[in-house]
Amino acid sequence: MKDLSPKQDQILDFLRSFIEEKDYPPSIRDIQEGCGISSTSVVDYNLRKLEDKGYIRRDREISRGIEILGARGRRARIVEIPVLGSIAAGQPIPVPTSDRFGNDALDMVAVTEDMVRGKTNVFALRVKGTSMIDDLIDDGDIVFLEPARSAVDGDKVAVWLKDREEVTLKRIYHEGDRVRLQPANSTMQPIYTSAENVEIQGKFISSFRPSD
User: Fold this and answer.
1) pLDDT for res 98
2) Nearest alpha-carbon partner for 203 in 137, 136, 148
3) What positions carry a catalytic annotation?
4) How far apart are alpha carbons 57 and 134 in whole angstroms?
5) pTM > 0.85
6) What domains can be seen in the chain, in order of their start residue?
7) For 12-27, what is each residue's pLDDT tens digit?
8) Are 119 and 24 in contact (CB under 8 A)?
């Protein structure tokens, strides 16, 4: 890597570490913060240099479209995921099927295939609130889920609470004839409810924070 500047070498190391840990590429803002770089324009300049030198490939149509060349021997495939709504109070969000994606979707988000772990029957929801902040899921993030009707203790799931008529994202625990929905926020209390009141709609795959 003699042709790389120290900053480009740092960014490339950060890309490798981030992708290895998260299994999806970082955003420009992630790189700026992770490498202590003064501005996103400096990040973009050095990414262009890395691309010119053949170390990475970028898809500028999406916020995280960075691929380290040679890491997988192929270009990361871009997939479009339907955004079905917000994970907050409102109407129940239907568990989607592939033939209904076009009708159900309020929006579409393009991401790399790795971000959804290569799964095909995936839908997305926008997060409202900070109940899962300790799991690095913040207000405004997008979460990707696979349709599911059951889950094991500790899974992060999107559930429809029938009595509240709202969807929430929590970790689920079965405790006899009741269910505990545990937030990942030390300032918030868990929700206890009967098992009959809970309808699991999806299991968490991953999340990302849209770029500003």
Assistant:
1) 44
2) 148
3) 131, 170
4) 32
5) no
6) 6-68 (1.10.10.10), 78-208 (2.10.109.10)
7) 889 888 887 777 888 8
8) no
